[in-house]
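CORE FACILITY INTAKE
Project code: CF-77B
Contact: R.S. (postdoc)
Sample description: multi-component assembly, two entities in total
Requested service: structural model of the whole complex
Turnaround: standard
Below are the sequence entries exactly as provided by the requester. Do not edit them.
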Amino acid sequence: MAVFMDLNITYTTDKKRLRSVIETAAHLGYSTVAINYVVDLQQKKQVSSSVFPGKSRPIKVLNRLTVVASDPSHFRPNAEYKAYDLVAVYPTTEKLFHAACMTFDVDIICVAVIEKQPFFFKRSPINGAIERGVFFEISYTPAIRDSTMRRYTIANAISLMETCKGKNVIVTSGAEKPLELRGPYDIANLGLLFGLSEGDGKAAISTNCRAVHLHGETRKTALGIVHTMKKDQPLTERQEEEHAPVSKRAKIETV
Amino acid sequence: MVRLKSRYLLCEVCVSDRRNLSLLDDRAIYTATKAAVARAHGDYGAALSSLGFSVKYLNAHTGIVFLRCRKSHYRLIWSALPFITSLENRGQRVPCFLNCLHVGGTIRTCQKFLVRYNTQQLHRMLPLCQSEAERSEIRKSVLSCTLKKEADDEEEDE
């Protein structure tokens, strides 16, 4: 069975609810989840407290940062980004989308699902992003909550698929409550609604997510070869053992 | 040879907080699924789901449901399942979601999968047991899981 990952669980300050969401994800069969801290450009940055809610089942919990940006200068205070495993950007203008696809050092680009896309996707930045190994993310939880969101989600997803031909797409939840999660096979089937083929749909939650994870890890190392590790934490040590094969296998080179 | 082929969707109803709300019945799931398909795919979906669609089996303790639909349209119905958010039962609304575990061509293959799945769940529950009596109970059930008698007498705790 492939590893399924859900890379977008919204961070809430209610630790119990976060913990129940992660437990539900473990029950549904996900092997890895990522807690998403959303940073808006006006606010000051949040504290990155890596909350590991006690591994009751061996589910891996990652940290992820999403920057909502509308101006290229808002991105890139570099130092804190090292603390997160994955970095995502949510572009709101066409210029920023182009810049994010071609030059920004991110892993994930979020596609808008709660509003009509204010700009159209063009083939050239998307192809540039695919070559660099950046992935596009579609979140499905707004579609479950509300019918108007459902239309926007499907419309934006289909326009993305037309331009990118189904490559480099991941589908994630944006779950805030445990009832908003769905099982991996259901999501692969939702990919059919979004215009993905059946193989692409399954890849969108398993192999593509794993590629994003590796991409995030190689961002911490230099070109995927050298890895630094803190010695006092046993958790990082365990990751370091995985890094020797990972850095050799990483097909994605950044910067 | 002409034969009416069908697909059986093996789903699990996951309720968030209360185990007592697993007193569901198949009419509730039937109406909820038809409504969800109608909402997601419109009149075409509603017409398709009235064709070969039925709820074949429901286990109120573990929340396992078998849904049967035609082979030509099962993907459509399956794609509307994530949009179910609650089930109505005699006036009270239970928020839940359906998680599809397996798709099979016959009830027998689904049963085989279900037996394997239940043994996996029991194995998962074993380290979480509090007392030795529960532990031996689980071990006994694991050894007695066969196809002949559908022994899912455990609740999953989640």
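Facility notes:
- Strands of chain A lie at 4-10, 30-40, 60-69, 86-91, 108-110, 135-139, 169-172.
- The interface with chain B takes residues 20, 23-24, 27-28, 56-57, 140, 143-144, 147, 150, 177-183, 185-187, 189-190, 192-193 of chain A (CB under 8 Å).
Invoice: internal transfer
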